[in-house]
Design goal:
seven-stranded mixed beta sheet, 17 strands, single chain, alpha/beta
Length: about 550
């Protein structure tokens, strides 16, 4: 803010903060979601693709299961006291086999170990080559008053974590992130919860107030020495010793404006998997917004025996020319490409297995991909209206969707708008029925999901809950929430529940309950149509009188 926004000296009103005692001494857990949890979960969500295979987590495996949909995940838990955990003890004493882990999720733990560098080294050694550590540590923070108080040794800065990571993982094998600003720091020190704060302000970047520091580190794969005589012709390009072969996988995902598609990345996954099967070391060149790879413009081309360009169109244009110029000493392979010119007239590759050209056609590599399935989540939102907490509900839905691996699809039950995706009730119902679960602020989003046995997360936007809460109670469906009261953690727990067989059974039971109740309603309706009147006449007439007056005013004004 500029100086005009700064209150004059002596005019600042601290209000509820004018106390030596914080609002919460529990980091905000007793009020909702602590500020640091927002940053932690966004960090894990951003790097969810690294959570695979055998994954170590501290305390329990909740984050492992929350942030991956990989059906072959193998969670392991380290716990200080629980002998039923995979490993008992701290990061120094637990007997974790060397080279055992594909990933480790270590949140808010390193500060409890005095020998922090030694603990980080043990985590490094427990990872397989290429394995990933996702670690978070406190910066500006309260200190614990519970069982961890006597073990709280450190608060970290991005500089201290960078120094530790350099010593343990080596330059170029880690990324350090900082999260927080003065607004977040004050709120976190006071123990305020995310639900009572402005999320946009919490996410504003600042380098001076490090509330949370994050580390993504990868155990390096042994690099082969640079190839000898890199300009000595094709025989020198391909190392005679297979152990020295190393490939760089490049595609349109390697360029910041390459218009990369899901198919491009899936095709690259196939090539990487095939290289693994061959025992050939490899890197993938990625450009923002994708992370976790290398920059093809800055790596040493002499470290690679092969450069493989994967998927999409390939022509004699600028990016293609830059790629060939940089990796001309490598053996360059074209995979899953579209070439519009006959390959006997123009083919710059040492080997080409194109997807299609004027003379050849092959299936796209995506057919061989094995991307883990993610749940299809129907998102059905009510429009804003007076007296309802619609904006708050939408913000919580957005945070939920950004925190879980899923494929969200917007579905609206309203059919009278001009720009609509679904034009009939049947189309709306069919879309909702196809979802794995639904999150909604609409009554009929709730109803149509449950009618089709689809678990639902209903969020009533009315301040104290109204028709959505009542409908869920009538049907015997739980969970159901009120927008102003539900926490982010409750929504995450509900999303986990909705992906279980138990939730499917409960949804089907709710539909059966509705059918049984409506059978009685049908009988009552038949009685009414056959002449049964059960409304007190005096009450009926008195209740109609305000309607008559409104009608008369409307008629006279028109």
């Amino acid at each position: 803010m500029d100086n005009s926004d700064i209150p004059p000296l002596g005019s600042v009103d601290l209000g509820d903060l004018a106390s030596p005692t914080p609002i919460s001494t529990q980091f905000g857990f007793d009020r909702g979601t602590p500020v640091d949890r927002l940053y932690i979960e966004r960090f894990l969500s951003r790097h969810a693709n690294a959570i695979r295979g055998t994954v170590l987590e501290v305390g329990d495996d909740s984050y492992t299961r929350q942030f991956t949909a990989d059906p072959e995940i193998s969670p392991e838990v380290i716990h200080l006291h629980d002998h039923n955990a995979t490993y008992t003890g701290d990061l120094l004493s637990a007997q974790i086999p060397a080279g055992h882990l594909d990933a480790a999720i270590i949140t808010q733990t390193l500060h409890l170990i005095f020998e922090a560098q030694e603990a980080l080294q043990k985590l490094h050694d427990a990872l397989k080559p290429g394995g990933t550590l996702l670690l978070t540590v406190p910066g500006i923070t309260q200190m614990s008053t519970d069982q961890w108080a006597d073990m709280w040794y450190w608060s970290f800065t991005s500089r201290s974590i960078s120094e530790l990571a350099t010593r343990v993982f080596g330059e170029g094998n880690f990324e350090v992130g900082v999260h927080g600003n003065v607004y977040a720091a004050v709120a976190f020190l006071e123990g305020l919860a995310v639900e009572e704060l402005d999320t946009e302000m919490l996410m504003a970047p600042s380098s001076e107030y490090e509330v949370l520091v994050t580390l993504k580190a990868t155990r390096s794969i042994a690099q082969p020495p640079p190839l000898q005589n890199p300009s000595g012709g094709q025989a020198a390009r391909l190392a005679d010793d297979p152990a020295l072969r190393r490939a760089l996988v490049v595609g349109w995902f390697s360029f910041s404006d390459g218009h990369a598609t899901a198919g491009d990345l899936l095709a690259a996954d196939v090539v990487n998997a095939w290289l693994d099967d061959l025992g050939i070391a490899h890197d993938t060149a990625l450009a923002p917004p994708f992370d976790g790879g290398v920059d093809w413009r800055s790596v040493d081309p002499a470290s690679y025996s092969h450069a493989i360009f994967v998927c999409g169109p390939f022509n004699c244009l600028g990016y293609e020319a830059d790629f060939f110029a940089r990796f001309d000493q490598c053996r360059i392979i074209g995979m899953d490409l579209t070439l519009t010119r006959p390959v006997d007239e123009w083919n710059p590759f040492d080997a080409l297995l194109e997807r299609d050209s004027p003379t050849t056609g092959r299936p796209d590599l995506v057919f061989a991909s094995r991307a883990p399935a993610v749940p299809l989540v129907g998102v059905c939102r009510v429009e804003d209206y007076d007296g309802a907490d619609v904006a708050e509900a939408n913000a919580k839905i957005d945070r939920l969707l950004s925190s879980i691996a899923c494929a969200p699809i917007d579905i609206d039950t309203r059919l009278d708008t001009d720009a609509r995706q679904f034009r009939t009730p049947a189309a709306v119902e069919r879309a909702l029925a196809a979802c794995d679960f639904v999150v909604t602020t609409r009554l009929h989003g709730t109803v149509l999901a449950l009618k089709n046995g689809v678990p639902v997360i209903p969020i009533d936007p009315e301040p104290d809950g109204a028709k959505i809460v009542q409908q869920a109670k009538t049907l015997g469906w739980s969970p159901v929430f009120v927008a102003s009261q539900v926490t982010d953690q409750q929504l995450l727990d509900a999303a986990s529940f909705c992906q279980t067989a138990e939730a499917r059974i409960l949804a089907a039971t709710a539909a059966e309950n509705a059918a049984q109740i409506l059978a009685d309603v049908k009988a009552e309706f038949a009685a009414v149509m056959n002449g049964a009147i059960n409304t007190d006449d005096n009450l009926r007439q008195a209740s109609r009188e305000p309607l008559r007056r409104i009608h008369e005013r409307r008629s006279s004004s028109s």
